[in-house]
Amino acid sequence: MASTLVTIEKKTGRRPWYRSPKLIRHGVMVFFFLFLLHVAYDHQVKGGGPRGTPSVEAYCPFGGLESLYQFLTTGGFVRRIEPSALILFAALVLLTLVASRGFCGWICPFGSVQEWLGLVGKKMLKKKFNPTGIWDRRLRYLKYVILAVIIGLTWHLGTLVFRAYDPFLAFFHLGLGMDEMPWAYGVLAVVLAGSLWIERFFCKYACPLGAVIGLIAKVGLTKIHRDPADCKSCNLCQKSCHVHVDFLSVTTIRDAECNHCMDCVVDCPKPNVLTLRGPRWRFSHPVYASMLVIGLFGLIGASQLAGKWQTRPPMVSF
To answer: Which of 25, 75, 128, 233 is the most buried (most CB within 10 A)?
Structure first.
């Protein structure tokens, strides 16, 4: 069997799909997606509140940022936000400082949905529309404007102003609550349709959490490196990259749009031309996946041991 696989790889120049390093990333993506899907289903069936189950908002790091001002000034949280969201935001900041935008490319369930829809769209439509040029670059700044508006209004008003339009929340409401958040479901429909044509449509142009992570990731320790000595300048990496990172003009990729999916590392026809590296180490797919998963769960576990982890409102005694 092993000799057969070696023969296949020599003839085609490619590994079978089940031996591809990309499978590791999609396995991690599926794990976190199914976890949050389970949380969402449980919440819809059993309800929320102190006697119910946590909502997906308790596991959304962006909620921690939305409630940060109120926590620092009053010690409390914006309604519907639990301490777990703030802990996850703090964990995400630490993780991003080490692993850059790995959360976006490997963990975020809503990003995974968009990427999978992009694969479906590529099969259905036989091609994908992945825009380039000046307008694509300009539209990417829209997410920073959205971030500033959301944070400014939320901190000023003390309420979740984005909740009524949040496609992430609408998706994990599993088709329920359309009368509660019709605008969110409308935005979700646009995002899902757009993701069939443009890879990671919402991530690229409108995700406020992605904007925060992109800014922090600029100083992250891990970066994609290109070896100019062995590079053939075929530019396949840029053509296959969903954000069209300019690989050929630099040796270290510091683009805030790079989500460390590492597909460019796999797709490069010459091994070791593109590598993911830290200050002293080089990371393979399994090592990087382990760092992300263990790092995230390790920080959550530390908060649980400290007695700070809380995903539901506390019981009130009178």
So the answer is: 25
Element (H, E) at 94: helix 83-99
**CA-to-CA separations, 217 to 93, 97, 247, 256, 259, in angstroms, rounded:** 9, 6, 17, 7, 9
The answer to whether 159 touches 227, Cβ cutoff 8 Å, is no
* Residue 129 burial class via C-beta count within 10 angstroms: exposed 0-12, middle 13-18, buried 19 and up: exposed
- Rounded (5°) CA angle 116-136-199: 5
Mean confidence (pLDDT) of the chain: 89
176: Cβ–Cβ under 8 A, 6 or more apart, which residues? 44
**Do 212 and 147 contact (CB within 8 A), yes or no?**
yes
What DSSP designation does 281 have? -
Taking only the tens place, the pLDDT of each residue in 288-317 is: 999 999 999 999 999 999 999 999 887 655
Report the C-alpha gap between 249 and 284 in whole angstroms: 24
Neighbours of 242 (CB within 10 A): 21
Write down the pTM of the prediction. Answer: 0.89
**Residue 225 DSSP SS3:** strand
Nearest CA to 262 out of 279, 277, 281 is that of: 277
Residues of the chain short of pLDDT 50, as ranges, are 1-12, 318
C-alpha dist (Å) from residue 309 to 56, 94, 144, 312, 313: 15, 17, 30, 10, 11
Instruction: State the CB neighbour count (10 A cutoff) for residue 136.
Output: 15
Spatial distance between the Cα atoms of 92 and 291, rounded to a whole number of angstroms: 13
Cβ neighbour number for residue 301 with a 10 Å cutoff: 12
